[in-house]
Predict the structure.
Amino acid sequence: MDVFFVFMLWSLFGWFLLALGLGTRRHRRDKEERERAHATATVTEHAAIGRRGKGGKLYTSCYPVVRFTADGAARTAKAEYAADPARLPVGTVVDIFYDPDDPSRFHFSDDALNGRPGRLLVALGLTWIILAAAATGVVSLLASGYGPGDIPDLISGLRLFHRFFR
């Protein structure tokens, strides 16, 4: 099997994570552009939503419900992302940004309270691609007949390469 094909196969997962992370970040940016009106809100409750996982185990997620005033009218809205009730107890006052066209869509001004998987997915994707490239390089060297004893020769070759291009 060709070494380049193996690299492409291994790096495919990294590219998937990278694309997913960039898409999530773009969705987040579009959401922030839509939700630009500012308000101060109070956490009134936590909406508990239960889901069954594998084996029938019940998992419960708590979504903060906030009350705020938009265009002179009192509004209540449930957050898009789950949050630990201990982090946002009932009665907590938070700053939010909401969509003036649909006040039920909002996000917290504190980034730590919003789900932010985009950065993590981009970092994981890039790390996976780099590790796949490094592993492919090592496999390629070993397949070419290089062994652990040849490492000093490879390093000195890299030094010569570096001096040549300075």
Summary: The chain has three helices and five strands. The longest helix spans residues 3-34.
